[in-house]
Design a protein that fits this description.
Blueprint: H1 13-25, H2 33-42, H3 46-50, E1 57-58, E2 63-64, H4 73-78
Length: 83
């Protein structure tokens, strides 16, 4: 569901299905299907999905955690804090 206070464009189910079908039928786009599916199913931004680490995935709880490590001074100093 799209938040009513947002002006961010949200793809419709029909549009997502069409994008996934294009990925399935165009061999050069097969790699893109799991990425699009992840983004559509979770609502994550591309950068959030790209920065996922295995420790962010909890299969037992069926949860993905999007990290905000800005409070870690050690990671900020290293330049590796995820936001």
């Amino acid at each position: 569901r799209r938040p009513t206070e947002s002006d961010t464009y949200c793809y419709t189910r029909h549009e997502v299905r069409a994008m996934l079908e294009l990925c399935r039928t165009a061999p050069e786009l097969h790699w893109l299907e799991p990425i699009l599916l992840t983004l559509a199913a979770t609502g994550m931004r591309i950068s959030e999905a790209a920065n996922l680490r295995w420790r962010d995935v909890d299969f037992a709880a069926n949860v993905l955690r999007v990290a905000d490590e800005r409070s870690s001074s050690r990671l900020r100093k290293l330049g590796t804090a995820r936001t």
